[in-house]
């Protein structure tokens, strides 16, 4: 998976298919945990256990400008805390990186280590993080989701060194899924990056959650019959390779048809379905040795072929199906335990 990202990155640059940077001058990356679904086929030792058997989890790194997954940190212990893998993630942090993550990664060691490496972060505050307030909250305007205020805080690392951060408070117009109306965000980005811009960056975290949904729906990343952790994680990483291959296809389309059209109108489902339904027939019609010539091409030659093919793609055949606004759920009588209802009757 990592090898595919290293090879595809330079190719995307030749295709001129990179998205507009989220924040100029920073390498924006997002990280989140993905827990594989409980397996249907259990190992013999777990067949008498009533609890769900989780074959593994992983931390997935996503580069939104490229649309690639450049790194993954698999763990065979499914119920393991995501924080237990933060040490491996820190080894990959470089100066100039901007990491966007959820509150599970909001630990003193993780934030201070990123700050010490001249990198940056935007993370939701975890209630267990110890910090000292340096200034009162000051209003900083409104965003589409609520009112923003910020203050200065500092956190002491394990060596006794202080790290100064900004703490944002967002009064949400609508509560989150867990019922929170106040959202606190921590960042070490310089003050030139406004509080409203920081809030907008964190709000884009849904991009990675959407990628997970695509992996499960289009690439079958969670293969329930796989009970062995190594097999389940191997299958998940193969789906990440397929996702990176799709990122190259989308980059070629963006380079020819434009970023807005491809990102807003093209359906990943239809593209993935087209690949899945034509692949086996194509491999029968075109013998395997015929594909060897592509491996000998330079990036410039390969990009030129991809662009020529992208110009011939009829995007209307892969357009997303529009849907109307969601309607409020009507009130229902009875209780879920009152029995089933026959749809036919």
Please explain how this structure is put together.
By secondary structure, this protein is of the alpha+beta class. It has 2 domains: 1-102 and 205-321, no CATH class; 125-202. Helices cover 35% and strands 20% of the residues. It has 10 helices and 10 strands. Strands 1, 2, 3, 4, 5, 6, 7, 8, 9 and 10 form a 10-stranded mixed β-sheet that branches. Strand 2 and strand 3 form a beta hairpin. Helix 1 packs parallel to helix 6, helix 1 (2-15) packs across helix 10 (299-311) and helix 6 crosses helix 10. The radius of gyration is 23 Å and the shape is globular.
- The structure class reads alpha+beta
Discrete helix count: 10
Low-confidence stretches: none
Succession of helices and strands: HEEEHEHEEEEEEHHHHHHH
Number of domains: 2
Beta-strand content bin: 15-25%
Mean pLDDT across the residues is 88
User: Which radius of gyration do the C-alpha atoms yield?
Assistant: 23 Å
Give structural attributes.
alpha+beta; 10-stranded mixed beta sheet; about 35% helix; about 20% strand; globular
Task: Please specify the SSE layout and strand pairing.
Layout: H1 2-15, E1 27-35, E2 57-63, E3 68-75, H2 86-90, E4 97-101, H3 108-116, E5 120-124, E6 132-133, E7 138-143, E8 146-156, E9 162-172, E10 182-187, H4 195-203, H5 206-218, H6 229-257, H7 259-265, H8 268-285, H9 292-295, H10 299-311
Parallel strand pairs: 1-4, 4-5
Antiparallel strand pairs: 1-2, 2-3, 5-10, 6-8, 7-8, 8-9, 9-10
Helix pairs in contact: 1-6, 1-10, 6-7, 6-10
């Amino acid at each position: 998976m990592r090898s595919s990202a290293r090879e595809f990155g330079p190719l995307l640059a030749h295709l001129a298919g990179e998205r507009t940077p989220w924040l100029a001058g920073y390498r924006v990356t997002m990280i989140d945990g993905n827990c594989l679904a409980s397996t249907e086929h259990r190992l013999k030792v777990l067949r008498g256990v009533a609890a769900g058997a989780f074959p593994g989890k992983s931390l997935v790194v996503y580069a939104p400008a490229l649309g690639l997954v450049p790194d993954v940190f698999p763990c065979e212990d499914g119920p393991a805390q995501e924080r237990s893998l933060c040490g491996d993630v820190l080894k990959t942090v470089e100066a100039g990186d901007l990491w966007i993550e959820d509150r599970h990664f909001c630990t003193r060691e993780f934030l201070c280590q990123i700050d010490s490496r001249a990198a940056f972060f935007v993370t939701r505050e975890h209630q267990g993080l110890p910090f000292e307030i340096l200034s009162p909250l000051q209003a900083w305007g409104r965003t589409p989701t609520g009112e923003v205020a910020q203050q200065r805080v500092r956190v002491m690392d394990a060596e006794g060194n202080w790290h100064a951060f900004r703490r944002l408070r967002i009064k949400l117009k609508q509560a989150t899924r867990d019922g929170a109306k106040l959202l606190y965000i921590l960042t070490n980005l310089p003050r030139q990056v406004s509080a409203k811009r920081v809030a907008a960056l964190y709000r884009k975290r849904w991009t990675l959650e959407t990628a997970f949904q695509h992996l499960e729906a289009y690439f079958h990343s969670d293969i329930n019959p796989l009970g062995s952790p190594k097999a389940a994680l191997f299958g998940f990483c193969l789906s990440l390779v397929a996702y990176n291959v799709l990122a190259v296809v989308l980059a070629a389309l963006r380079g020819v048809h434009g970023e807005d059209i491809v990102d807003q109108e093209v359906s990943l489902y239809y593209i993935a379905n087209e690949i899945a339904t034509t692949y086996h027939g194509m491999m029968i019609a075109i013998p395997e040795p015929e594909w060897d010539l592509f491996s000998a091409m330079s990036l410039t030659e390969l990009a030129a072929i991809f662009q020529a093919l992208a110009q011939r793609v009829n995007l209307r055949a892969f357009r997303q199906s529009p849907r109307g606004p969601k309607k409020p759920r009507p009130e229902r009588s009875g209780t879920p335990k009152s029995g089933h209802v026959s749809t036919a009757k």
